[in-house]
């Protein structure tokens, strides 16, 4: 009987109240021990009713902010945990002193909410896009509910993993976004000394489904036929110029030039002039209805389209087109997507050594073939060595144009030069065969590679995109036990550091993509697909936009310098120095053949 819990009716009779809070207050004032269940109900036993604690007025003079007395001492319950701060025989003064020390110590703790608020009020946050800021505020609702009161330094990767698993049951995409937000806050706090680590590092996000296919010609035509003129123009510019949507919406009429359409990529800052074609001129004509001043793509009010507004046009056109055919694609043109489906522009490169193939390159103008922006920074000695290897490439490998494609000697020479560029200085490292014998099951024996000539044309500049280098990087990756995993054939003691840096770059790029979107990301989002693609994509930047890679991932860039046995950034810097001095009329220029005196 004495250990039995009181029923609800008995508790009402004992306290004289039906209200749960009133019941708790009455029991506490009379020194009767009780518990409060999750549903808020009050429970106590007949033993505690008959044996109340010997409380007196003195005990009730202690702080009344979550403080209570038990026979074992004084306790404070500020949040989810209960902590003792004074013994049961402490004097009133001792209780107050101990309480103030406890509160002061608690106030000095840095909670995750403190870090979050500091970041929200920082310059870094104010520099983010308005949409991104809204996303952070939306994420705070869920993140701070779990981690807000937790001391920041006590949050471990296992806690992030549990949170991800719980959130992932409802939405894996949202869980990934919130992971990125937390990681960004921890990274910002780490750089300023508020925490000593980022617990989000090493906690994998949920896999992002890869795009399984490109838009087909049938789908493109179906949408184009029902799209308004302003959307047709954007579709054509995106397709013909390999331009991202954000860059298209930023185009001005002043960029319509005599030689072509001037486009500066927002991702890399590289400026190019896309030569006029009849189809591109027709696309520009579609934009003339709203005037030839200001933005090239604009609404009926003469204002620039927002990304969401332009996306609405796309969705409406796509919805209308689905009445004829099934379409499951979204607004995204990172590269001219249907080019690879045009077999008349494709070619195949057969990798095994072809000792019987005797294609002559004696009549090739190699100086002209090498006069592309990507190869301009090379010194005379470097260019001569590259040409030598390119000639060997043409003698020992076959370029097989498909269907109606015809490659002249200069085009073949440029392809050979680009394939040779990543491997030209690595023969001492065992990555290039100097003889005509290749060991079985090595990278050159993994079958042919099919490339598109229109995409190869986009590989001649310093834009950060280079299809040939991308494919060559995959071949070099295969050299390591025939496995494509982003770790090429490097010394064993360098593997762990290489893998760590490569994974770190993937995480960093994924965070950026999820915060600003693929179109606004500083690098190609394809690098976040897997380590092998990350290595290949970053190899593109290493050769065709080295300043971007070196600035973004400096230590990884140095690893690439060691692996590829060349430093494109130093070459580019030396070239800029020469041009600057020439522009100033300086007669003595530095020796480009020896950029590192």
Automatic annotation (TrEMBL):
Residues 110-190 form the Core-binding (CB) domain. Keywords: DNA recombination, DNA-binding. It holds the Pfam family Peptidase_M90. GO terms for molecular function: aminopeptidase activity; DNA binding; metallopeptidase activity. GO terms for cellular component: cytosol. The keyword DNA-binding applies. It comes from the Eukaryota. GO terms for biological process: DNA integration; DNA recombination. The keyword DNA-binding applies. Gene3D superfamilies: 1.10.150.130, Collagenase (Catalytic Domain) (3.40.390.10), Glucose-regulated metallo-peptidase M90, N-terminal domain (1.10.472.150), Intergrase catalytic core (1.10.443.10). PANTHER family: MTFA PEPTIDASE, PROTEIN MTFA. This is Core-binding (CB) domain-containing protein.
């Amino acid at each position: 009987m004495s250990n039995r819990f009181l029923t609800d009716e008995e508790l009402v009779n004992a306290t004289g109240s039906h209200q749960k809070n009133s019941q708790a207050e009455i029991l506490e004032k009379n020194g009767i021990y009780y518990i409060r269940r999750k549903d808020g109900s009050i429970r106590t036993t007949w033993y505690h009713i008959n044996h109340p604690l010997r409380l007196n007025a003195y005990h009730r003079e202690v702080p009344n902010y979550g403080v209570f007395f038990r026979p074992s001492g004084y306790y404070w319950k500020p949040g989810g945990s209960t902590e003792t701060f004074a013994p049961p025989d402490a004097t009133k003064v001792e209780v107050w002193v101990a309480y103030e020390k406890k509160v002061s110590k608690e106030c000095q703790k840095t909670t995750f909410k403190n870090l979050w608020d500091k970041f929200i009020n920082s310059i870094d946050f104010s520099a983010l896009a308005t949409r991104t800021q809204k996303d952070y505020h939306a994420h705070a609702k869920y993140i701070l509910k779990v981690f807000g009161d937790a001391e920041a330094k006590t949050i471990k990767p296992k806690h992030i993993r549990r949170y991800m698993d719980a959130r992932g049951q409802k939405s894996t995409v949202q869980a990934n976004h919130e992971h990125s937000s937390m990681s960004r806050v921890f990274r910002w706090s780490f750089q300023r000394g508020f925490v000593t680590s980022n617990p989000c590092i090493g906690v994998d996000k949920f896999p992002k489904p890869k795009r399984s296919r490109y838009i087909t010609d049938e789908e493109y035509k179906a949408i184009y036929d029902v799209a308004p003129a302003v959307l047709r123009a954007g579709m054509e510019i995106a397709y013909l110029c390999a331009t991202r949507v954000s860059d298209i919406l930023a185009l001005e009429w002043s960029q319509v030039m005599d030689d072509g359409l001037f486009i500066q990529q927002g991702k890399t800052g590289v400026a190019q002039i896309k030569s006029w074609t009849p189809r591109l001129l027709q696309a520009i004509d579609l934009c003339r209805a709203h005037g030839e001043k200001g933005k090239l793509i604009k609404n009926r009010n003469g204002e620039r389209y927002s990304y969401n507004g332009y996306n609405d046009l796309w969705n409406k056109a796509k919805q209308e087109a689905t009445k004829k055919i099934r379409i499951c694609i979204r607004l995204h043109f990172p590269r001219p997507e249907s080019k690879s489906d045009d077999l008349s522009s494709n070619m195949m490169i057969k990798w095994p050594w072809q000792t019987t193939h005797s294609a002559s390159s004696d009549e090739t103008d190699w100086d002209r073939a090498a006069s592309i922006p990507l190869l301009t920074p090379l010194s005379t000695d470097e260019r001569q060595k590259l040409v030598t290897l390119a000639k060997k490439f043409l003698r020992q490998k076959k370029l097989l144009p498909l269907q109606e494609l015809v490659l002249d000697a200069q085009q073949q020479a440029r392809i050979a030069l680009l394939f040779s560029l990543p491997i030209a200085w690595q023969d001492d490292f065992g990555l290039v065969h100097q003889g005509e014998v290749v060991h079985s099951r090595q990278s050159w024996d993994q079958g042919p590679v099919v490339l598109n000539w229109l995409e190869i044309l986009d590989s001649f500049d310093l834009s950060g995109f280079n299809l040939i280098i991308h494919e060559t990087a995959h071949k070099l990756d295969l050299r390591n036990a025939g496995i494509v995993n982003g770790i090429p054939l490097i010394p064993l003691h360098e593997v762990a550091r290489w893998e760590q840096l490569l994974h770190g770059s993937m995480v960093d790029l994924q965070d950026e993509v999820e915060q600003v979107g693929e179109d606004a990301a500083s690098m190609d989002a394809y690098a976040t697909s897997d380590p092998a693609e990350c290595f290949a994509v970053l190899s593109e930047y290493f050769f065709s936009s080295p300043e971007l890679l070196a600035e973004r991932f400096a230590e990884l860039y140095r690893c690439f310098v060691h692996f590829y046995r060349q430093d494109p950034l130093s070459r580019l810097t030396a070239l800029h120095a020469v041009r600057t001095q020439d522009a100033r009329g300086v007669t003595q220029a530095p020796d480009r053949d020896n950029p590192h005196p």
